[in-house]
Give the backbone structure.
Amino acid sequence: MHDQALSVSAAELVEAWRVFTPVLHHIDDERPQPVLHPFGELPEGYVAWTESHGVDIAPPARHWGAAEAEAHAAKEEAAAAALASAVEKAELAELRKRDPFSDASFVF
């Protein structure tokens, strides 16, 4: 037996062919050239087309180079270390409030 969730129903298949058949015929008849653009950039005219068709697009994701990624990671690590240090100091101060004998200056 196989998982039905991984298959399409007959109705879904018919609808997919109904939607894509005209597109495939257009490609066969017109032989449009693909729109080439550099990796990671939007094709020329894409934003104008989406705006004219009422399509809301999210801004493209930020891609970092290796140096940028390492600098960001170091910055995040430093921030995490500073936060851990501040939490540790606050916890120690709270402990001293509760236990006056924890101070190193107390001598028996």
